[in-house]
Design brief:
Number of helices: 1
Largest sheet: 3 strands, antiparallel
Distance between the termini: 10 Å
Bound molecules: adenosine-5'-diphosphate, magnesium ion
Shape: globular
Oligomer: single chain
Number of strands: 3
Order of helices and strands: EEHE
Length: about 70
């Protein structure tokens, strides 16, 4: 049973003058009792992803449901 579904998540900070996409077309599913780690270099968007999941950043493209 999936407890989290992220489909084609896309996000960029509006106050970032470079208009870089921080997250582009990210999809993942998390099953009940499944443990995953988000791994990547500094600045790749790990904390941004968590902020989106927490509702701190809420203007994103794609779909998140649980
Ligand atoms: N509030 C913000 N406004 C504009 N750019 C941001 C903001 N927060 C983070 N960034 C930029 O977004 C990118 C991803 O940051 P972040 O998610 O914190 O990376 P990580 O947690 O993987 O180190 C970085 O380039 C960072 O400078
Ligand atoms: Mg971080």
């Amino acid at each position: 049973m999936n407890i989290l579904n992220i489909e084609n998540l896309t996000f960029g900070y509006k106050n970032n003058d470079s208009h870089n996409l921080i997250i582009q077309d990210l999809s993942l599913k998390l099953d009940k009792n499944e443990l995953i780690s988000i791994v990547g270099g500094s600045g790749c968007g790990k904390s941004t992803l968590i902020k989106i999941l927490a509702g701190i950043e809420n203007e994103y493209g794609g779909t998140i449901f649980s």
